[in-house]
Amino acid sequence: MHLAYPAVLAALLFCTGLYGVLARRNAILVLMSVELMLNAVNLNLVAFDAWLSRAVEDTLHSGQALALFTIAIAAAEIGIGLAIVLAVYRNRGTSDVDRLRDTAEGHDPDDPDSDATGRALPAPAAGEKAEATA
């Protein structure tokens, strides 16, 4: 089998994962997209290891060993990431990444008394309010 087939498949997997990270709003789907990108890296590691071991008669298989380390790191990442997402969901009531960013900045999009930057608008003076209603 040619090296191009797993390389193209890994590129497609990585691009799909990258699109998922950039386009998704749900934190769980973002974590799943990161897993797709890590699996693309694993596929490249194993494919290049098989290709280099045939060319050089290498019996060390360092690409497969690195793939095992990547799998272990991915498992730890998904465990910690899921714990963080669940804790944020309990505290904030949502796992929408955009809404979490807005609440971290102190901006409530439904608050009419705040401007676009999230700062509270100054209260009008007593004379200004009387003039506005007159």
The helix tally amounts to 5
Query: Roughly how many Å is the radius of gyration?
Result: 25 Å
Strand residue content: under 5%
Q: Average pLDDT across residues?
A: 83
- Tell me the total number of β-strands: 0
Which segments are poorly predicted (pLDDT under 50) over 5 or more consecutive residues? Answer: none
Structural class: mainly alpha
Order of H and E elements? HHHHH
C-alpha geometry: elongated
Main sheet record = none
Distance between the termini: 83 Å
Helical content (DSSP H or I, runs of 4+): over 70%
Keywords: Cell membrane, Membrane, NAD, Quinone, Translocase, Transmembrane, Transmembrane helix, Transport
Pfam families: Oxidored_q2
Subunit structure: NDH-1 is composed of 14 different subunits. Subunits NuoA, H, J, K, L, M, N constitute the membrane sector of the complex.
Main location: membrane
Features:
134 residues, mainly alpha
How is this structure best described in words?
NDH-1 is composed of 14 different subunits. Subunits NuoA, H, J, K, L, M, N constitute the membrane sector of the complex. It is a single chain. This protein has 134 residues and is mainly alpha-helical. The protein contains 5 helices and no strands. α1 (4-23) packs antiparallel against α2 and α2 (27-56) packs antiparallel against α3 (62-92). The longest helix has 31 residues, at 62-92. The N and C termini lie far apart (83 Å).
